Amino acid sequence: MATSASPLPGGQRPNIPSAAVRFPAVRSYEQVDNEIAGTLRPTLGWFAALGIAILCLLVGAATWTYQIHEGLGAAGYQPPVMWGVYIITFVFWVGIGHAGTLISAILYLFRAGFRTSIYRVSEAMTVFAVMTAGLFPILHLGRPWKFFYLIPYPNWRLIWPNPKSPLVWDVFAILTYLTISSTFLYIGLIPDIAILRDREKNPVRKSILSMLALGWRNSDREWRHFTRAYLFLAAFATPLVLSVHSVVSFDFAMALTPGWHATIFPPYFVAGAIFSGIGMVFTIAIPLRKAFKLQHYITLNDIDAAAKLCLFTSMVVGLAYLTEFQIAWVSGNKFEQDYFWNRVFGQWAWAAWIMLICNCVLPLSLFSQKLRRNTTWLFILSLFINLGMWFERFVIVVPSLSHEFEPWQWGSYRPTWVDYGILLGSFGWFFMWFLLFIKQLPVMAMMEIKEVVPPRFKHGHTDPHDLTADQIDPDQMGVAH
Amino acid sequence: MQGVLGAFHELDSAIHAIEDLKKAKLGDITVFTPTPRHEFDHVLEHAPSKVRIYTLVMGLAGVTFGYWIPVWISDYWPLVVGGKAIATWVPFTILGFEVMVLIGGLSTVFAMFGFSHIPRLTMTVGYDPRFSSGHFGVWVETAPEQADAAIELLKKHGAEEVRRER
């Protein structure tokens, strides 16, 4: 990219990834406010999308009502497969949430510039994905209104949950993750809500925004404590990402079932979660970028960098798949070997091959820079990744339970319309919240974008190594597309 | 609370105005900026935020509490499995870690609220909506007899607007 910039006087090498040229087509703080706040106006397309999401949610709600009336047998569970679509979808949604925290917290600690334009979307995605995931353990209960039994609190029953059970670890992990992710999202939003508050003319909306902004005034005192608190929250959220999906993986790894009882599960699950989350970020951010005309904020360079991350995590996931087979091979354990053979060449081969093609083969296309910068291909690929990662969880859950140690334990599993209805409802629930979010609050962190937009100087910017926005061709920075 | 408020469009003008205000010792200075800028940190020379102390102390309290919950539960309702210890620290580390993050994270936020004096019911004097958009604000809390000197100084450095507030 350096060659695309006009040379500086004296033949100095231009410092391309500097603050001055991160968003070359963004010239002022006011432009940031106007363009990003401008995305909040509802459009016909948004109403249509929201309508579809609510419809899907209603289908899910009606299906759940039917299941509560008829009992869990209405879903396709029968011995030996007593975990199916609900647990698969639970793990799927928890995983989706992970990329959000990776982008917002981990990449923040690493000072990765490309996160700036996509982290708000990713963070919101995390919160709504974990909200969706949290529904599934409840949906899976015969008496869902008793879900609070898993929380340790003094009660008249004088009984307590078993703290050695992975299901109790799950409760702690998911609730902590939801709380910290929501807090992280909200704290980052406060300065942006203050911007909206100061621009708002409608008195009702203004008073709501004033309450949400908590009286934020952009003073040096507030920023000093804000930046420090944000850093520490990011530092807490980082190991939390690793711990939550590790804990989810313990739901499986703590069992003696073939295919599950493996020490590779925690890193394998974390890598898969981040991979699937990046897929969902593309699924969401690419249409948003086009619909809101934000190509000069979410630049092709940013997308290119995220695509490289996607390729890397895909390869980690691929390595984890191979390691699973290798462990089964060298273990000498007949049941493990039989299970893994059955996974790719037996009863569930079709699911395993969907998983392998979507997660390991198709992402290899991202070795091509041309495809990494092709948003249409990335969007299509992201749909395949979403599909592949749902099937990864299917391949983990169903083949293991249907093919345990003894032949008399073997069986099959076929989801019913109840499973599909609730799966559809989960997508409706997720997208309903997401669509409501993008029209009420900014989809990009205006405050952080302003950090990398050069401020106005009376006497000019003095760093000779920084290019100003006028000195660089926006087309070459991946802006125009 | 009374003083003078200056609104600047350029960052360097605001910085130079603050430097001169500090030299003139006209009163406490508060800066309003649409986004955190390290230039203001350098010129204002404030001590680092004490939020970190709350993060550390409450994080340690959280991990202690997080271990205590399962230890107490196990002791209250012992489930003896294969002669293993009733209070086993390895699985309880998960709960210890999660509660540490939960309490440490939330305490960090509440400490930030406390130190920043938010939530605030009113915007108080010395704020302008422009400061959340593209302008930098410099508020000098000064006595009426020194206000003219502060106004002159802010104008000299190119403040777009200067006004007295109380």
Report on the structure:
The complex is a heterodimer of chains A (481) and B (166). Chain A has helices spanning 29-37, 44-70, 85-109, 119-139, 166-199, 203-213, 220-253, 265-291, 300-331, 334-345, 349-361, 369-372, 375-402, 417-440, 446-452. By secondary structure, chain A is mainly α. Chain A has a single domain, classed as Formate dehydrogenase/DMSO reductase fold. With 166 residues, chain B is α+β, with helices and mostly antiparallel strands. The longest helix of chain B has 28 residues, at 89-116. The radius of gyration of chain B is 25 Å and the shape is rod-shaped. The relative contact order of chain B is 0.31. Chains A and B meet through helix 1, helix 5, helix 7 and helix 15 of A and helix 1, strand 2, helix 2, helix 3 and helix 4 of B.
Characteristics:
heterodimer; A: mainly alpha; Formate dehydrogenase/DMSO reductase fold; 15 helices; B: 166 residues; alpha+beta; 2 domains; 53% helix
